């Protein structure tokens, strides 16, 4: 056990094999994670480096981007030499999206760049009436990320109202800008950071890629679905993993979309199964629904199954997407929580040095080695421009900022912005200026990667606590799992066939509910597997529970797993 | 001129009368603003007072509302003695809205109130990994609101990560809560404040009213339209003022809604015109569109016309809504920017004392007199529960928070929340905790009202600067206006019939564009009236420009109006 891994690019299984954990469809492919080659995607060759970025910035000089000024990624990208342009994806767009036009008032703002112009145009309040003179943050200094270290050696970062116009400060971003209205794309300041970060990590293989900020991936997904899908009019479906993020399913349903689940194995979505499904699609057998043209997938630490697609798997998924002309929504909140099993064996749990994030692990991990260890994204494989990637700060900085970003081709981002202008006006400025000050000015790209490295060490320890508890307290005769190599979820398969209730004719949902209630009574809350079933209108034939190792302390997590084990034993009369 | 007004409840006109300013339909009603009685709505009788609120809070003790905890307005409202329940408005809901169910994961959170339960349920990150130890704000101390006073005597307000669980602080809200995920309704802490504020100001006349936070009124409007309207399926229309907020129009269009404009006069929307329109609605003459059942209106300082509905007008609008079973979306970003003309004459412009907001005006305005001077809202007249009111912090605190709130009946708010859970997860926590600390803990209700009083004094001065400039620089033979008594917009009617181009056969849009471009060339940006036309598919027969007095300095505003006057003179060959 746990011997398989390899630079975060595969999955390991406990004594119940990954093939079996997710059911018979797994047999369509060879999913033994130990056979997955180490990650080495196209994006690391000719990769842009942090030094390139710093050089580019030095050449450009101080970024001047006053209130509500227009910006886009092209202002911050490096030269896209030798890359083709994206292919048009306009045939995927819904009639709602195609009928959108730019906001008249936002468009008028382009005249504001004329020297000396006085605006009586937009209804932007005067910064004089913003009742906040300054915001001061106390934040960690890389690589001293722990709460204790921050308390001792953290930095005080001040954001004043007029930092950009005060000649003695010459700031790049300030409260007068951040507290006012802004463009839906996000502020130039934070857009620059995420554009550069995206180029550093993904370096999309076509030239006209862009990013824009979002109000978080929840909102980004709803916007994207409305942009690409038309349930009532076009009879659209949405493809996704057979178990998928419940909120995503709850988003798709009311839009009139039929969600279609694709079989999975220990590495998540099965390309062969998707190919077969699409090749044999017959609208007449599908209530008149046309063949799906949009896939929603979570390649790393998938919610709820915790599975991670290796590089080869991603390439196969992308090839099937090309073959059937799918547009792909790549939702990657857990991308940086890729947790190699090797490292987890070495760091163990609870050593203070590692906890402090001082980089004192046995093998000195560098930013370069960290970046190389990440499995390449679908975005980095996307030669066509058929992927929209959703990134999030929720799992790696704070969820309460409600700020994320999307990356796709210029055309797609333009359509996205047309919708954002009327449905949310983009991310809030207060969070943007705080994130900018922390990530860009205080930490920089290097410091942010160090933070992410620290975070994945922490999550690795948490996962290992859960592995230990599960091995100790769960009855293996009925509970099995694959140790996740990314994310924050543990997916527990229960062999319902051995359950006395099932044997006496009860349904799976009924048994699931009994166990769930028994868990609540014993003082542990877990998520029911049925909440995540893509096709809610079919009968389940498997029984799962999802447990997260993200939140509880090590002690509580262990106790919670003990209680869960007790509930299972009682229910199965073991 | 400017002699008419009276407690913010009417509108005054310059030498071109209000009746004429907005065209012939105005003649349907008597809109002479001087005849409007002073505001005295139902909401000030039996009104809840700030002392009532303080007493209620003292009884309830410290608010305990940890991470992602459920809350609703009923926890914070006073007794609703003698009020009827709202009527069901479910027949207004779209099929999209009716198909929504509560989020499985959010629902599961209700088990978290069980003592001793350990959650492995939701994917909430651990606060230990939030890289912000504290946020410190510098903010004004009432009533010393000016920037200079804040710099000298402002308060430092600190928000720590664990203020609520630190026994030495016993805080109500902290970063560990605010930076994590939360309920879509908003945090209990800020929800309490806006619920109490709503009760103080509007005291809705039915018992089961509720509020919930929003991501700002832009997003709230899109959500509400999708909740109430169905363009493609039900062939719905949206009623609104004949000139309306351009972003609202741009929101409705792609949803397949046909926008239908209602004639206006100097007090905004004309109830008789709306009644006539609805009484004579014939789907066959309207491309098969069914009779409109939703009205979107901005009663105070309407955008773009700057008109304000007096109390009698509001009552009439509400009665027509009842007669035709309309659901009303009341969008009130400018509600507190009601600017009595009397006061503006007294305070004049530029006196330092008034600018400092020290309350040294000639007549001592009290919080009570301020509240009594506000024209009652449609919400406060709404005995049926057919109004959804949208409130915003954008114009009165900061737009960059992207936080507002809506008030409506319990059923409507429930449907709103079902949508919010999947389309944005509610307002961001960083802005919420900052607004809470400022408005609730630092200022309290009393201090916030003082802030609003200060703000309306400031806007009154700004409006008066524009009045003075307009009277000095605009050629009255072709430009006319009504002095606005609320909001931030000046609506300038141009008598196109005198234009040489029009006389030579040019179209109004062509002349509008020429003048707009001439303005840009002369260094002033104004908004074109045609951007705001509700029915974009008809030919315009009037010519307007909108100017805001919200943003530019007095000097720049005056210069900008001078340039605008120059552009007009040149275009008209005066």
From TrEMBL, chains A, B:
Keyword Transferase annotated: yes
Protein keywords: Aminotransferase, Cytoplasm, Pyridoxal phosphate, Transferase
Domain of life: Eukaryota
Transmembrane segments: none
Cofactor(s) in the UniProt record: pyridoxal 5'-phosphate
Record carries keyword Transferase: yes
Span of domain Aminotransferase class I/classII large: 210-564
Main subcellular location: cytoplasm
CDD domains attached to this UniProt entry: AAT_like
Major enzyme class: transferase
InterPro entries in the cross-refs: Aminotransferase_I/II_large, Class-I_PLP-dep_aminotransf, PyrdxlP-dep_Trfase, PyrdxlP-dep_Trfase_major
Protein family: Belongs to the class-I pyridoxal-phosphate-dependent aminotransferase family.
Protein name (Swiss-Prot/TrEMBL): aromatic-amino-acid transaminase
Gene source species: Neurospora hispaniola
């Amino acid at each position: 056990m746990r011997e398989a891994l390899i630079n975060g690019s595969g999955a390991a299984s406990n004594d119940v094999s990954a093939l079996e954990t997710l059911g018979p469809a797994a047999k369509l492919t060879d999913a033994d994670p130990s056979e997955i080659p180490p990650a080495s995607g196209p994006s690391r060759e000719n990769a842009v480096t942090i030094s390139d970025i710093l050089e580019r910035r030095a050449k450009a000089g101080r970024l001047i981007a006053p209130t509500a000024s227009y910006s886009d990624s092209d202002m911050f990208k490096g030269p896209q030499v030798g890359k083709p342009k994206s292919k048009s994806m306009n045939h995927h767009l819904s009639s709602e999206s195609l009928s959108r036009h730019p906001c008249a008032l936002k468009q008028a703002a382009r005249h504001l760049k004329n020297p000396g112009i006085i605006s009586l145009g937009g209804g932007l309040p005067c910064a004089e009436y913003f009742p906040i003179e300054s915001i001061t943050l106390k934040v960690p200094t890389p690589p001293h990320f722990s709460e204790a270290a921050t308390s001792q050696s953290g930095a005080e970062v001040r954001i004043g109202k007029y930092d950009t116009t005060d000649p003695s400060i010459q700031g790049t971003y300030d409260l007068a800008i951040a507290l006012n209205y802004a463009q839906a794309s996000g502020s130039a300041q934070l857009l620059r950071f995420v554009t550069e970060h995206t180029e550093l990590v993904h370096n999309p293989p076509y030239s006209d890629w862009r990013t824009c900020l979002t109000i978080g991936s929840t909102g980004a997904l709803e916007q994207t679905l409305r942009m690409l899908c038309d349930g009532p009019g076009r009879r659209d479906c949405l493809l996704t993993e057979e178990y998928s993020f419940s909120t995503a399913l709850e988003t798709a349903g009311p839009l009139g979309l039929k969600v279609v689940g694709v079989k999975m194995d220990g590495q998540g979505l099965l390309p062969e199964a998707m190919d077969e499904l699409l090749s044999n699609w017959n609208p007449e057998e599908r209530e008149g629904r046309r063949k799906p043209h949009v896939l929603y997938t979570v390649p790393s630490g998938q919610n709820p199954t915790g599975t991670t697609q290796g590089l080869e798997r991603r390439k196969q998924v992308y090839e099937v997407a090309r073959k059937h002309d799918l547009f792909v929504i790549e939702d990657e909140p857990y991308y940086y929580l890729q947790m190699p099993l090797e490292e987890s064996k070495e760091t163990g749990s609870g050593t203070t040095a590692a906890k402090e994030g001082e980089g004192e692990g046995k093998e000195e991990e560098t930013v370069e080695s960290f970046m190389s260890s990440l499995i390449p994204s679908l975005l980095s494989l996307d030669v066509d421009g058929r992927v929209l990637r959703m990134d999030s700060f929720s799992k790696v900085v704070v969820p309460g900022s409600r700020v994320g970003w999307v990356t796709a081709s210029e055309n797609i981002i333009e359509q996205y912005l047309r919708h954002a202008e009327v449905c949310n006006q983009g991310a809030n400025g207060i969070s943007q200026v705080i994130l900018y000050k922390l990530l860009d000015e205080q930490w920089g790209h290097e410091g942010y990667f160090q933070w992410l490295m620290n975070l994945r060490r922490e999550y690795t320890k948490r996962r290992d606590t859960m592995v230990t508890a599960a091995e100790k307290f769960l009855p293996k005769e009925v509970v099995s799992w694959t140790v996740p190599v990314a994310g924050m979820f543990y997916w527990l398969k229960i062999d319902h066939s051995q359950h006395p209730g099932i044997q006496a004719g009860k349904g799976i949902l009924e048994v699931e509910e009994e166990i769930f209630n028994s868990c609540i009574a014993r003082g542990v809350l877990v998520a029911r597997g049925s909440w995540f079933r893509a096709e809610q209108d079919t009968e389940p034939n498997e029984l799962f529970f999802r447990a997260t190792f993200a939140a509880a302390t090590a002690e509580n997590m262990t106790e919670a797993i003990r209680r869960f084990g007790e509930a299972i034993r009682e229910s199965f009369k073991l």
